[in-house]
Amino acid sequence: MLSALLIATCSSGETPAGGGDGAAGQAKAAAAAPEKAAQTAPAAADRDAALRAAGYQQRGGAWMASCEADIKPVPKDSWYGLESAEFRDLNGDGAEEAIVSGGSSYCFGNTGLSFKLLARSGSRWTVMIDEMGIPAFYPRKGIAWPDVEIGGPGSDCFSFVRWDGRKYVYGGRSLEGRICELAPAFAPKAKASKAGLPMATGLWARNRAACEGLARGQGDPDFIFDGKSMIGPQDFYGVTPFEPLGDGRYRTGGEIERQVIDMNNPKFIIVEQGNWWTGGYTWCSSAQNWKPWEYSEEDF
């Protein structure tokens, strides 16, 4: 599923410990399908308690939940059925967690599925994750709980959540367990270099789709970083020098452009403040040159 460019732009060197348990984005029948961890059949009372904690109730002899349960009366179309309820020990502490999945296109669009991860303390079940999508679990070395990739339609990288020591939080984006982008909280801390900002040199663009276009010779990069300066279209802007602010953040200054940039991930920067171009940017390739940008004054 990975394109040649994705291989170049989607790797941070972090791979699943043990290979994970399957690719997110597969058919609903494969959602959260366990391949590594052993499953057991819980007692009926435990299973029922977990389902109720996940928001399900018995309706006409079937377990059902609603995505609009806060509306009274509850809209008829908002009810959806249970797809699966699996029980396995995800963090190796000897206690089983519950992965409860169900959904409909009315509630969850093309993905058609949502899931909840619940942990038990005594007889009480608590929801740890409540997301729309198809879960896949990938153990990581040194982290008690596995990353949970939240898949859906398409073949691009998906969001995943990661355990921060207390709870699951946004961890970045991954594809079949392979890290595409790490959230700043988990990105390796970059070290300042004599050249300035510690970011990968080469072509940079807004997103992976734009990078793929560059690989086909289509479109233009947003800028080129040569190790010292960030150069934009026709040298329209140049960003240098770089002043370290701490915590992987830098203030840049140029004749026209000034930004504050989060560079904790050398291949995915976040421009937090800027004259024109805030947001995330992805490293595409190490190329140091590109055909001249074509633009007119109307573009600006």
Fold and architecture overview:
This protein is mainly beta. The protein has helices at residues 4-9, 44-53, 105-108, 208-215, and strands at 57-59, 62-66, 79-88, 97-102, 114-121, 124-132, 134-138, 147-151, 158-163, 168-175, 178-182, 202-205, 223-225, 230-231, 238-239, 242-246, 249-253, 258-265, 268-274, 279-285. It has a 9-stranded antiparallel beta sheet. Strands 1-2-3-4-5-6 form a 6-stranded antiparallel beta sheet, with helices on one face. It has a 5-stranded antiparallel beta sheet with strand order 7-8-9-10-11, with no helix packed on it. It starts with a helix and ends in a 15-residue tail after the last strand.
Distance between the termini: 37 Å
Count of beta strands: 20
How many distinct folded domains? Answer: 2
Unreliable parts? 1-13, 21-36
Approximate helicity band: under 10%
Number of helices: 4
pLDDT averaged over residues: 78
Task: Categorize the overall geometry.
Answer: elongated
Protein structure class: mainly beta
Strand content: 35-45%
* Main pleated-sheet profile: 9 strands, antiparallel
Q: What is the strand arrangement across the widest sheet?
A: 15-14-13-12-20-19-18-17-16
Radius of gyration: 23 Å
H/E element order? HHEEEEHEEEEEEEEHEEEEEEEE
Set down the secondary structure blueprint.
Elements: H1 4-9, H2 44-53, E1 57-59, E2 62-66, E3 79-88, E4 97-102, H3 105-108, E5 114-121, E6 124-132, E7 134-138, E8 147-151, E9 158-163, E10 168-175, E11 178-182, E12 202-205, H4 208-215, E13 223-225, E14 230-231, E15 238-239, E16 242-246, E17 249-253, E18 258-265, E19 268-274, E20 279-285
Antiparallel strand pairs: 1-2, 2-3, 3-4, 4-5, 5-6, 7-8, 8-9, 9-10, 10-11, 12-13, 12-20, 13-14, 14-15, 16-17, 17-18, 18-19, 19-20
